[in-house]
Amino acid sequence: xxxxxxxxxxxxxxxxxxxxxxxxxxxxxxKMCMQCGVCAGSCPFGPYWEHPxxxxxxxxxxxxxxxxxxxxxxxxxxxxxxxxxxxPRELPITHxxxxxxxxxxxxxxxxxxxxxxxxxxxxxxxxxxxxxxNELKLGIALYFMNGFIEGIKTALKMQxxxxxxxxxxxxxxxxxxxxxxxxDTGGLHAILxxxxxxxxxxxxxxxx
Amino acid sequence: xxxxxxxxxxxxxxxxxxxxxxxxxxVDSMCDVLDIKLNEIPDWNxxxxxxxxxxxxxxxxxxxxARNMALSEQAHGDQDIVATCAACWLAxxxxxxxxxxxxxxxxDTNEALAAGGxxxxxxxxxxxxxxxxxxxxxxxxxxxxVKKPLDGIKIAGYVGCQTNRPFGIAGxxxxxxxxxxxxxxxxxxxxxxxxxxxxSCCGGALIFSEPEKSHALIKDIIxxxxxxxxxxxxxxxxxxxxxxxAYQDQINAxxxxxxxxxxxxxxxLMSVAYGKSGKxxxxxxxxxxxxxxxxIAGK
Amino acid sequence: xxxxxxxxAYICQGCGIGDRVDTAQLAQVAQRDAKASIVRExxxxxxxxxxxxxxxDIDNEGVNRVAICACSxxxxxxxxNFEGVAITRGNLREGVIWIRPDTDExxxxxxxxxxxxxxxxxxxxxxxxxxxxDDNTKYTPKVLIVGGGVSGMTAAVEAAKAGYQCTIVEKSxxxxxxxxxxxxxxxxxxxxxxxxxxxxxxxxxxxEESDKITVHxxxxxxxxxxxxxxxxxxxxxxxxxxxxxxxxxxxxxSGYFEYDARQLxxxxxxxxxxxxxxxxxxxxxxxxxxxxIKTKDGKEVNSVAFIQCAGQxxxxxxxxxxxxxxxxxxxxxxxxxxxxxNPDIDTNVIYTDLRTPGAGGEDFYRSGQQxxxxxxxxxVSEVVASGDALEVxxxxxxxDEDTSEKVDLVVLATGQVPNSGVDIEAMAAVVEGEEDxxxxxxxxxxxxxxxxxxxxxxxxxxxxxxxxxxxxxxxxICFPYETxxxxxxxxxxxxxxxxxxQAIEDATGAAMKAIQAIENAAKGRAxxxxxxxxxxPSFRREGCTQCKxxxxxxxxxxxxxxxxxxxxxxxxxCRRCGTCMGACPVRVISFENYSVDSVxxxxxxxxxxxxxxxxxxxxALACENDAYPxxxxxxxxxxxxxxxxxxxxxRCLGSVNLIWITDALNSGYDGVVMMGCQKGENYQCHFxxxxxxxxxxxxxxxxxxxxLSLEPxxxxxxxxxxxxxxxxxxxxxxxxxxxxxxxxxxxxx
Lengths: 208, 299, 749
Ligand code: SF4
Ligand code: SF4
Ligand code: SF4
Ligand code: SF4
What we know:
The complex is a heterotrimer of chains A (208), B (299) and C (749).
Chain A lengths: L1 H4 L9 H9 L14 H5 L10 H9 L3 H5 L12 H5 L6 H14 L8 H16 L4 H9 L4 H10 L1 H9 L17 H23 L1
Chain B lengths: L3 E6 L11 H14 L1 E5 L17 H19 L4 E3 L2 H16 L1 H12 L11 E3 H16 L9 E4 L21 H8 L3 E2 L14 H4 L1 H17 L4 E4 L2 H9 L1 H8 L7 E3 H8 L17 H8 L1
Parallel strand pairs in B: 1-2, 1-3, 3-4, 5-6, 5-7, 7-8
Helix pairs in contact in B: 1-11, 2-3, 2-4, 3-4, 5-6, 8-10
Chain C lengths: L6 E6 L4 H4 L2 H10 L5 E5 L5 H13 L4 E6 L15 E6 L1 H5 L6 H23 L15 E5 L3 H12 L3 E5 L14 E2 L10 E2 L2 H10 L3 E4 L2 E7 L5 E7 L4 E6 L1 E4 L3 E3 L16 E3 H11 L14 E5 L19 H15 L4 E6 L9 H10 L3 E13 L2 E8 L4 E7 L1 E4 L3 E3 L5 H13 L51 E3 L9 H24 L14 E2 L9 H5 L5 E3 L5 E3 L9 H5 L5 E2 L5 H10 L12 E6 L3 H10 L8 E6 L7 H9 L4 E6 L13 H9 L2 H7 L7 E5 L7 H16 L7
Parallel strand pairs in C: 1-2, 1-3, 3-4, 5-6, 5-13, 6-9, 13-23, 15-21, 16-17, 16-21, 17-18, 28-29, 28-30, 30-31
Antiparallel strand pairs in C: 7-8, 10-11, 11-12, 14-22, 18-19, 19-20, 24-27, 25-26
One iron/sulfur cluster (SF4) binds next to helix 3 and helix 4 of chain A.
């Protein structure tokens, strides 16, 4: 994987596009964008994107590998699917954004402190452990994901909301002591391990 | 009408002590009236929602939903899979569509499932609860059971994202779906006409990682409901419900607003209209009390 | 038919006319004031019984002029269609009852209006003769086609299929034109995914195999004269031998020149052999024939950039201001030449706006993307040679940054310059300028070698007039293929820029037009827009002062001069617009069914109440193509307008003779409103220049007004479109208000 980080790409050549096609979820669609800008104008977090999807697609075609993969942009996707619903070329933009984020993360190029990157990983680890999401543990981990002091501050800010949820029995302290989970965690872990293996093998095949 | 049975995928947030537990309570009450039997998929797992992508790749993520489908096929393969959570429904439905349209993916997925001793065909329909209501009962069918029409309540139907896009409810448009308004009307309440933020995003899971940006979105959603004269907001999605209801204090603090807008599920409206008690309708689970609904339920 | 004029006036009571006006009074007016011989009222004139009543009078009573006082002349034309008689219409429905309120106060003025329209209809009938038609016509079922490219060959094949003889005159030594030099063409069939065979070989085969098509290669026209049905053309070969043949119609498919890319040194053309035009690339591809495309020095191309709109869609001096329409798709096609041969070749299409018209355009674009062609929205500033590569410098308009790409080959998407012959209007301007002693005008930006294509003997000049940017045509949208020379149709890129597919469709349409012209000419009938009209202009030789106004103003070049310098009308070229009639200062030009009198007497028979009755009169002359229908539609929508107006439809505003205005003002009208079509560059005038000429002519009306000491506001001229349903009535009302302000005319008796 690490060799990929130094991949050399020439401007406006197909190299990076090919890499994306092979490694990124729905990446084969990137070349189909017609640069209309509808997605950029449809995104709820539009103003916060360093480069909206339209630009990301052009950057991929222009060979801006480093800039794309280290960008915080695709981490801004809230999965609202607005862009997908509106794209005249029917690009699965949401999936491509998720795919790019995942790929960048896998290569270790994603910005370390991007909060959504951290949270998304926390979430995945949380759910895969016992098969179901544990909202309390996730919440606590979330407060502390930026370090202990920050965590206390966030927790204080969130105190009232947490209390409200406890009061209405929509957050349970019992979760700390294990909480929900599935029975066949062994089976699940085996499935996920296998799935990851297959996926990496497929990417290898593509990359030759 | 005879009993209708479905293979039920409840999802993490509906579990006891989780953020949408009151949703589940009201769904149970509603199903009781409509004579629906929900058969829980044995040992179901999390779908990874819309945020699992960073950690999981495509295949591990799809494998999660595929495992649920495989278990459903084993236990009640002849029934439709029904989910109440928008994200659960979306993830499961997406997996089904992708498996059916991509042979290689189907093969890979089954190879992974085999490691856990499972196998999937992805043939069952995957439906959201509102689809069941609209398509299997119809508005007229749903109206028949109304005992206490929700007279005098004006409600903003907040559809949000994931029951609406990319799949949506059959026959509805992405930009202005009407089903929630119709459901509100069917229960005897008045929908807010042209609710401006009907299909806007609440920030979804990014409420955790990007709280400020999400609050800005939520503020607009609530404001538009007030502008439309709404007494409360109704939604079909647990993420929307949580985001729009639970952060109003923080939004008020930041934007100097005085929001106190109840946010309920369609199933809570229906339970009350069908004559269930406030508790049975999960109204005790509101962070912001839905007074007008409580009043009717208490009558 | 009896020479004696016998007018039958028929007054309809249907459609509410009977309820709103006193038809008995109308009948009386027709008989007493307008002198109709037979007057009948009918409850429902357009039904079978009503129509039969009229026919009976024609058959048994010798009625030869029929004045139908019912609905608009545009309604019920099939019911009121009587052979061999002159027909006029008094518009009581759209012109009176539908535009007036049904109130007691309005009753009197509404009746006045109806009375006048009856008087006018009967009077017009009196001054009309049923057109007898031209008996000097010729039937020549042969089409002359100038140009042997895709357009010309298609026109020939299509006309031949319909049974007409065709002759193609091609100046080069082979058929095929520009298309023959291309390797493949933009696809014309679903799924529009790959370049297709040009089809030129089959087309040539079809031409050669047809027993109806004759081909003259290495030839051009040295003289073309005559008119539809009887054109005569001298076809001269390179060696100088000439044959003369007769034709019924002409299709001009003279194609285009490629824009001279040497005018684009900033893009490296002429500096590096690896900067080529699209046409040159197609030649390279043809040579490679599916193998790797090589540069001039024999190197295989591994990367190529296409620069769209090279010297096009640009206001810069020497550039083409327009879009040639095909070049975006052509670049996609050419990028596929590379991708299909070797998908690893990098192809980048740099565009500012990608335009992919046509049914399959979008599909083809997507297919290009599927194949991995990169599309970059960017503006190229420069191409510089660096080593053995070329550096294309551009601004990426999506990423908003200046950047560049290194490539082996650059292809410039240059445009089409029409091969449209001599710009006769510029020529005329120069001649006029010289006569006036003024400096000749600055020549326009793009100069092409100008040789006449047709060498017409028309007094207006040797070629078909240009419309815009040197393309020859009349109105692009409303009247494609029509030129201002009847029976001569332009097609293909000489008419507007286009690709092969469009040229094929275009040529098929032009062939159809040519056939129509041949058939119409043989029967003495007018072409579009007065299709089927049998009348034609004639002039009274004794009265003519040889002023040449008619010959100059005829928009269609229909009038030549005979040896004695009198106007010589070529009926087959004439479109029956009446512009010559409007132009003639001594009023000697007329049609059998349209003349200075047929309109002039109508306006004179209108009852002009004296000053103290406070009933002004407004004359409205409305073009029958747009303004009159607009007024009819206003009536259908019950838009009200002044009861003081009397509307007379005219063939074209160009047919309005100043005498009508003078007469109207002299006889006490308080105002005159004229409505014609849009003039100028984006004209809508169905006779191209009629409305324009009328506007110029009417600018002189001020003198008349002055000599009568009348206010200039009393006469207004407007451009009205068929969609001006609210505006046309408003213009009439405006005049009514003006009169209210400035007072009644002092010329009432
Ligand atoms: S799905 Fe993601 S990228 Fe698309 S509009 Fe929504 S937030 Fe933006
Ligand atoms: S909406 Fe679709 S086609 Fe348009 S810019 Fe976005 S991705 Fe490209
Ligand atoms: S305008 Fe009249 S006078 Fe002059 S040449 Fe023509 S016909 Fe004769
Ligand atoms: S001006 Fe019009 S009517 Fe007169 S000759 Fe020319 S085309 Fe015919």
